[in-house]
Amino acid sequence: MSEKQEIFTLLNGRVTMARGFYNPTSDAVWLAAYAPNNVKTVLDVGIGTGGVSLCMLARFPELQITGIDISDQMLNECRQNMLLNKRNINLFNQDILTWSTTDRFDLVITNPPYFK
């Protein structure tokens, strides 16, 4: 059995990801692909390791993305992936059920886990 690579890519190499606790797959790529062209600000609820947001930034590098996640581990992996891709995402370690902001967003996305 072959060992999995520590680094893998999405979008034909336009997004680089470090293999971690959760690794985005085609659902992240598809969700990012459906973002409208006129979006300027995005809220990614449960950003995880950043797969969807980083795919969106590969298409629209000027996007202002805010990511929220309840997991320190996911946010740390997201930060690592942001560095690999030389991208910036404003991250919050919060529960979406109690988080509050006065910011407004053109698009709100989420790609919740489908397993325990």
Sequence-ordered SSE layout with sheet pairings:
Blueprint: E1 7-10, E2 15-18, H1 26-33, E3 41-45, H2 51-59, E4 64-69, H3 72-85, E5 90-93, E6 107-110
Parallel strand pairs: 3-4, 3-6, 4-5
Antiparallel strand pairs: 1-2
Helix pairs in contact: 1-2
Description:
It contains three helices and six strands; from the N terminus they run ββαβαβαββ. With 116 residues, it is of the alpha/beta class. It has a four-stranded parallel β-sheet. A two-stranded antiparallel sheet has the order 1-2.
Beta content: 15-25%
- Percent of residues in helices comes to 25-40%
Cα shape: globular
N-to-C SSE series? EEHEHEHEE
- What is the distance, rounded to the nearest whole angstrom, between the alpha carbons of the first and last residues? 26 Å
Mean pLDDT: 92
Number of strands: 6
Helical stretch tally: 3
Low-confidence stretches: none
Arrangement of strands in the largest sheet: 5-4-3-6
Structural features:
27% helix; alpha/beta; 116 residues; 4-stranded parallel sheet
Task: Tell me briefly what this model is.
The chain is built from 3 helices and 6 strands.
